[in-house]
Each structure stands twice: as structure tokens, then as C-alpha cells.
Design brief:
CATH topology of the largest domain: Cobalt-precorrin-4 Transmethylase, domain 1
Strand content: 15-25%
Oligomer: single chain
CATH class of the largest domain: Alpha Beta
Helix content: 25-40%
Radius of gyration: 19 Å
Distance between the termini: 18 Å
Number of strands: 14
CATH architecture of the largest domain: 3-Layer(aba) Sandwich
Order of helices and strands: EHEHEEEHEHEHEEEEHEEEHH
Shape: elongated
Number of domains: 2
Amino acid sequence: MPGKVYLVGGGPGDPELLTRKAWRVLQSADVVLHDDLVPQELLCVLPSTVQIVNVGKRCGDKKISQAEIGALMVQLAREGKMVARLKSGDPMLFGRAGEEMEALRAAGIDLEVVPGVTAALGAAASAQISLTDRRYASRVVFVTAHREGSIGLGNERHVAADTTYVIYMPGNRYAELGGELQAAGIGADIPCAVISRATTMDETIFRTTVGQLHECPPAASPSLLVVGIVAGQTTQEANMRDNNFSSDLNKELLQLAGQHPSHHSHGRGSVE
């Protein structure tokens, strides 16, 4: 019998933020195909019996093409396997889900999407930034700093003062982004925050302004940039917590995972 492919949102990183359905699918899958941005904390909670394959693409370093990922999902499903295509955050937001669903439909493969907590919401929660604080913001714009055929925020113009921008995949090109934001009409004094590896034990938060964004130190991926008046409305206690993130459950999960033999694999060579 043909198998099935689930496009699973892994959330921002903390295993506690997996939905119950995502957890159930990941615990039942025969094969998990994951992106590079899926953190180790999530991979460590997978059963030792599952086959784990890294199909990530990052910063132009492609271990496998998008077409090959689609073909691999089809091949595994036709072998009768239950496949979890694990993506960071939510599959439908900057996750290439459209291309992968198209490949599966064209091959007649049964598929289902399991939503996840997108990185913007996980990062906003960790940094205690209310993206739509009604006193300051009535709009939120999700945008990626990397686009098909072009790079940057050149299309953004005449940004309303009550807009919060959440910029996915900013990389470390902060000086360029600061210039692009100001060219779009965002003032140099507008607060912003770079949040790296949100909700994980490696989380860092750097708070600054658009004009001083070029001074931001390099941030580990995945990261995102929150820009808007709301990014400056944090308490002193929240600032003190920055760069000091911890999770007792994450530590416990990592300890449990250490009791199992390593079952990670990379690239498609591990698939028989």
C-alpha cells in the first residue's frame, strides 16, 4: 500500500512547543526528512527506530536540490513508508511547502500538513515583544530578506508608522538591512531586535535601533529581525533575561537522548 507524507511544522525549536499532532506524527514516522534549521533538541526526541535524513539547504550550500527532495518523498511513500517532512517553524511560511505539495500531488501521493508555531511568534514570546500592541502597531508584515531572483527589501516603500516588521532569514547583513529599512521610510531611531535560535537553550537577543543595526554582532542561524516601536516596549526584567535562556525540559530531553545510540544521518545516501 502507498505510504503518506506529512509536512510537519517543528515550531521555533523548543520541543515543548510541538503540537500534539506533530509529536504523534514524529513518533510514528518511518522516515524523518529534516531541514538544516531544525535544532538538535527536536531531533533528540525522535525514536531511535526512525530513519533520520538531513535534506537541508543553507546559504547556497545545497546537499540536495529541491527537485531531489520531492523525488525522495515520492520514492519513500511509494515504498509504503510514513514520511515526516520536518520543517522549522510552520511549513506554510517561507518553508517551500508549495513546491513540495506540488511534487507530491503530481505523483498522486497522499499528503497532510501539520501546522507549527512559526519562528516569529516563538521569538516574540521569548523576547516579550507584543507584535500588535494596540497602542503602537495595527499591522504586522512578515517578509524574508532573501527572495527568488533578488535579495533585500527594495520593494518596501512608504511603511506606515504603526507597522511591525518581522524579517526572516536576515543573515548577518545588518548594515545593508539597516540602509534598506531607512530607504523604506523607517526612522533610524526605531527599535529593533535580532533574535537568534529562539526558544532553544542557545537563544540570544540583541536589542538596538535601525540606525545602529550595523553594530549587531553575528547571530547564529536561524535568526530573525523584529523592527517597530513595539520592539522597544520591553521591561527591565525582560532585558536582564536576554542571553540567559534556559529550559529544564530541554535539559531533561537532552539527557534522555544521550542514553540512546546516535541515529542521525546526513544526505540522501542513508536511504536504501
